[in-house]
Amino acid sequence: MNYYIITGASKGIGKAIAEELLKNEKNYIIGVSRSNSIEHPRYRHQPLDFSDVAGVENNLHKIFLPLEDADKLVLINNAGVLGDIGYVGEEMANDQFKFVFDINVTVPAMLMNSFLQTYQQQSCQKVIVNISSGAGKYPVDGWASYCASKAAIDLFSVTVQQEQDKRGTGVKVYALSPGVVDTGMQENIRESDAARFSTVEKFRQYKQKGDLASPEEVGKKVVNFLYNTNQYKDVLLSVRGM
Ligand SMILES: NC(=O)c1ccc[n+]([C@@H]2O[C@H](COP(=O)([O-])OP(=O)(O)OC[C@H]3O[C@@H](n4cnc5c(N)ncnc54)[C@H](OP(=O)(O)O)[C@@H]3O)[C@@H](O)[C@H]2O)c1
């Protein structure tokens, strides 16, 4: 059996990846998020709120169960939040920084740590995919915490890959940017106020002109990537080029 641990599998890109993977009877999914929307014999849901880091720590053992029959083990850190949109220093609550970093960086790092600790000794193929963003490569005003969190997960991924290479474990780590995708996150972006985010109109235009990729389309591309990771040498990748 191939095991895929996917965070944020309840909606958007994560759900589309999970549903695409479930088409193959050799795949088993462990989904982790606050809510669940998938019922399937090869799907197990672990409810967790990533803004509660202590709660995540206490429940890690429920996610990473022994999987001795695994032919392939994959962790997909997909759950993510944008946080409140707005300029730093202008009506921005301090607790937003921790909120965004806990969900987008701290918990994904903890999951990578536990995944490697639990499954390191298994000889099967092991892959970690962190869903990143173009916004981790350039600034977007109004999104400072989000941009910084995605830049952090990019360099975290590159560093962990270097460590795995030095240890010769064969583990592959990727930070994959999905492009602009028609999910709840984009809905929130479009609803924001231009005074707090100067390029909001560009995002409204993406929707009006039909320029957003569907989650299903992106889910298929990510799954195709997961089936062919041996073709990809770089850690930082974009779904757009696939
Ligand atoms: N959509 C885009 O255009 C776009 C572009 C670049 C990058 N991305 C990245 O792609 C990933 C998926 O985004 P999406 O667009 O699919 O977003 P989405 O539709 O808003 O889905 C977000 C997922 O994250 C989970 N999540 C949110 N808060 C959580 C929490 N506190 N604890 C546990 N899980 C939580 C949600 O599950 P629950 O609500 O059930 O907890 C949901 O399954 C994110 O990392 C995002 O940064 C998206």
From TrEMBL:
<keyword id="KW-0560">Oxidoreductase</keyword>
<dbReference type="InterPro" id="IPR002347">
    <property type="entry name" value="SDR_fam"/>
</dbReference>
<keyword id="KW-0521">NADP</keyword>
<dbReference type="InterPro" id="IPR036291">
    <property type="entry name" value="NAD(P)-bd_dom_sf"/>
</dbReference>
<protein>
    <submittedName>
        <fullName>SDR family NAD(P)-dependent oxidoreductase</fullName>
    </submittedName>
</protein>
<dbReference type="InterPro" id="IPR020904">
    <property type="entry name" value="Sc_DH/Rdtase_CS"/>
</dbReference>
<keyword id="KW-0963">Cytoplasm</keyword>
<dbReference type="InterPro" id="IPR051721">
    <property type="entry name" value="Biopterin_syn/organic_redct"/>
</dbReference>
<dbReference type="Pfam" id="PF00106">
    <property type="entry name" value="adh_short"/>
</dbReference>
